[in-house]
TrEMBL record:
Protein name, UniProt field: Ribosome-binding factor A
Subunit structure: Monomer. Binds 30S ribosomal subunits, but not 50S ribosomal subunits or 70S ribosomes.
PROSITE patterns: RBFA (PS01319)
Organism per entry: Candidatus Erwinia haradaeae
GO cellular component term of the entry, any: cytosol
One of the Pfam families matching this protein, by short name: RBFA
Family membership noted in the UniProt record: Belongs to the RbfA family.
GO biological process, one term: maturation of SSU-rRNA
Length: 138
């Protein structure tokens, strides 16, 4: 069982690497005129399916993201053909492309933390000013 998990991880890493290369060098669709980054690949236990997580550089509009995912799903057969030429698997998994929003979520969390730190600093400064006024009036 342990060996199987290691094998799945190695296959997922190899798929990750090869799909990234294919997307950068082989796919010439004008609708994908933006940098596509493969952030991860999850492979099913039987190697029949692979979920490919992608991000698009500076793309935040949901409509554009969905359109680009649709394009990727339409070229997934071609990507599988190219994968079969470079990988020595009996069956190349069917590819499902999903948007990885962890980068956007990370940016959102970072901005929330920054705004809370700024707010806390401002409140502390106001509290210190009030304490100084109280000592001066005494």
């Amino acid at each position: 069982m342990e060996k199987e998990c290691g094998r799945l991880q190695r296959i997922a890493q190899e798929l990750h690497r090869e799909i990234a290369v294919i997307l950068q060098s082989e796919i010439r669709d004008p609708r994908l005129n933006i940098m596509v980054t493969v952030s991860g690949v999850d492979v099913s236990r039987d190697l029949s399916h692979a979920k490919v997580f992608v991000t698009f550089l500076n793309e935040k509009e949901d409509v554009q993201i969905q359109m680009r995912l649709l394009v990727l799903s339409k070229v997934s057969g071609y990507i599988r053909t190219l994968l079969s030429k470079v990988m020595t698997l009996r069956v190349i998994p069917r590819l499902t492309f999903c948007h990885d929003n962890s980068l956007i979520e990370g940016e959102r969390m970072s901005s929330l933390i920054s705004s809370l730190v700024t707010l806390d600093t401002h409140r502390r400064a106001l509290a210190e000013d009030k304490m100084e006024e109280g000592h001066l009036n005494s």
